Amino acid sequence: GARAALAPLLGKGLPVEIADGTVAADDLATFGLELVAFAADAEALRPVRQALAKRSGPIVPLISSVIEPTAYAHERAICVDTTAAGGNASLLAAAE
Q1: Does residue 56 have a pLDDT over 80?
Q2: N or C: which end of the chain has fewer CB within 10 A?
Q3: Which long-range contacts (CB under 8 A, 24 or more apart) does 69-77 make?
């Protein structure tokens, strides 16, 4: 049911891959992941948590809620600080 649950996120240009079915916990170490969503009881989640904890690199969040669409996308904001130019952004553009 993962594909149906995440249908609103598909086709929006988001980097979402869906695996309906079972993925061996040990295989999680080989995938390039930024997040894992797995809805199950605590006993079934244990090997997934352990496999993710063994990974090196950035921490991969595990979302275990049945539906939490906001957890599947990262919002990023970019701010250009023009304080050093006295608030005048054209002075920064001229410095390039």
Answers
A1: yes
A2: C
A3: 69/6, 69/8, 69/9, 71/35, 71/37, 72/6, 72/9, 72/14, 72/16, 72/35, 72/37, 73/9, 73/14, 74/34
Q: In whole angstroms, what is the distance from residue 41 CA to residue 34 CA?
A: 22
* Cα distance between residue 39 and residue 53, in whole Å: 18
Is the whole model's pTM more than 0.70, yes or no? no
- CA 43, 72, 2, 19 torsion-angle sign: negative
73-95: per-residue pLDDT in tens? Answer: 666 778 777 666 566 667 666 65
